[in-house]
Amino acid sequence: MAKEPPRPACVxxxxxxxxxxxxxxxxxxxxxxxxxxxxxxxxxxxxETVLYYRNPxxxxxxxSPGEGQEAVEDLSRKYTVAVPADRLDELRAxxxxxxxxxxxxVMYLEVAGYAEFLEVRPEDGFLEV
Length: 129
Fold this sequence. Notes:
Layout: E1 9-15, H1 27-41, E2 45-51, E3 62-63, E4 72-73, E5 75-82, H2 88-101, E6 106-111, E7 114-119
Antiparallel strand pairs: 1-5, 1-6, 2-5, 3-4, 6-7
Helix pairs in contact: 1-2
């Protein structure tokens, strides 16, 4: 059997509240996410609760929704997955769908130590059962 190449470790954060009204997500949505991550990536570690860093230059545990706007504190759940390098775009697309489902404007993704901020658009779709 051929040895499989190493996979980049990927970390993403899901805030525990919606962007629009700051209310918590229903437990069914968390279950949908867990099932979808396993289907998409084959396995997952998490969730682990962490403070969210939307902007590396911002105060830890806070993010700025825009210039001149007051910083918002956020608590998130951290997930870790390992996907083949040639499937990273699939993971990005999945996280944009998750962003819509969890009512987020931007999703944080870290691939092998490099941070990405994925803008979420309605046309990216939603998580499905």
